[in-house]
Each structure stands twice: as structure tokens, then as C-alpha cells.
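Entry details:
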Amino acid sequence: MANQYFKPVFQQRGLALITAMLVVAVAATTAAYLGLDQQIWQRQSENFTDRAQAEVVRAGAQEWVITILAKDANESNSDDLTEDWARKLPPIPVEGGLVTGQIIDAQSKFNLNNLVRNNQPSPPDIGTFQHLLKTLLLDPNLSDSVIDWIDSDSNARPAGAEDIDYLQMKTPYRAANQPLQSVEELRLIRGFTPEMIEKLLPWVTALPQPTEINVNTAPQEILAAVFYTLPSSAVEQLYQQRPYKDQAKLTTKLQELAGGKTLPPVHIGVKSSYFEITIETLFGRYQRTTQALIQRGADKESIHAVWHSQRLPGWIVSTESKAGENPEKPAGGKI
């Protein structure tokens, strides 16, 4: 009789204990989730703050670059690697983070859009590009495909390709028939592979218009491609005796190196209008690399960013570009 009385009481106490344990477990789980949500919210808040700081610093650094280039334009009639814009500086600490970057004379590279001037193939530039391709152990006939991609006609060159060739591909498309917007656009041109483009990246660029190559900032490999009719010893001398402070001195030096022979017409100079900049910011866990192309005119008011883009690991977010462009960005110094 007693056992029958106490057994339900014992069972009730066990059920109460289990219920209490369940309540504690649920409370603990809820607290853990609330704590996790709090941590996520705090992390998001920190990331937002870091991103905002990075953007302010990036914009300030870009304005600083514009000021440096404007000052240089007012003080000098040439551009070379001894000037302030080309001086390397270590990363600069700012409140809560770091900023560093690099200014590169875009006209130290071969501008792919030089291949077509006034909608006509440019023989001197074609010769330069073909010799550059040979130096890199690439097929010089690739120049035909690039010219056909840029020019406005539909007449394919001997080793080139036009609409009729691209429309027969598995994924058909047409030739651009306009200047290249970026070096990466080469991936659309018949004959080019990712490995070839990787080889070319350090040596070529794609500027909005045909330009001169700056002899004062171009690497020796580019000078050798430009002055391919000169012996290598003459190119070495031209390279070693830089900078040339005006066009007249450069012309005199070239005549001396040519030894009385007539040099083929080349598009060269000692002053640049286009500069590529890379700005890297680091705030907390937020790291960003921004690339921009700066066009410099006669005064600061005429200096502006043609495009700038944000590069993150594995992808690019364009933040300011001209309509229809797909910017990309990649001799100079750090800022």
C-alpha cells in the first residue's frame, strides 16, 4: 500500500528534474545564440566602420596623387624616375590602419591602342609590338588579330580575325571595332591565351587614345622593341644616359646613336599624360586594393580619374568608370 503511494511521488520528482534540465538547456542555447548574434552584429559594425575609414583614406590618397602630379607638371617639362611621384615610400600609418600604394607611368608601357591611329594601322607601332612579342617568345602575327579587333572595318588581315570568324565560335560574338578598354580584353581576341596575356601584362597597357612612349620611364625591354633597328649597345646607352629633360636632347641623342642613318618614325616623348595608381588600405580585418587611371592635363583642374576600380581577392568591383568600360586594372614608385 505504501509502495503504491510513494511511487507516483517519485515519478513526479523525476519528471520535474527532467523538466528543469530541459528549461536550463533551452535557456543556455538561447543565451548562446543571443551571444553569437551579438558577436556577429559587433563584427558587422566593426567591418562597416573599417570600410568607411578605408574609403575616406583611399579618396584622400587619390587626391594626394593628383596634387603631386599637378605640382610636377608645373615644375617640369618632362617625367622621369628621379621625380617625387616616382619615389618609393613605406606603408604610411593612419589612425586605425595603414595605407600604401604605387604610381606607375602608364606611358612607360606599350599602349595597345597605338596599333591603330586615325583608324589606320600604324606601321611603327606594329613593328614595336611585333618585336616585343618576339622578345616574349610569342607569335608576332598576333598583332594582326589585335588590329582587326580595334579597327572599324570588317577586312581581316592575313593572320587576323573579324566578325565572320568570331560569329563561327561556339559562343558567337562580334569584334569590338573600337579601342581596347583594358589589357584583359585580349582574352576575347582570337589567338590569345591566359598564359600569353599573363606574359604581356607587365609590358602593355590600354589607354583611351594613342600615346607616345616615355623614353625616360620605359624599361629597357620596351626601348629595345621601339628602337629595334638600333644595335643592343645603342639601346643600352640610350637607357643608361636617361633622363632626357626635353625632346630636343632626346632627338640629338638618337641621331648620335643612329650614326647618320635614318631612324624609322617612332612615337616617343619625354613627358606623360597617363598614370596608373594602386592604393592599398588595411583597417582591422578589412583590406582593399583600388586601382585607377589618372589623366593629367595642363593644370590641376584638368587632372581626373579616367576610371577606378576596387580589387578584392578573386574579383573586382568597379566603383567609378566611364560608360561602356570594363576597367582593370595593373616604372614607378610607391606613395
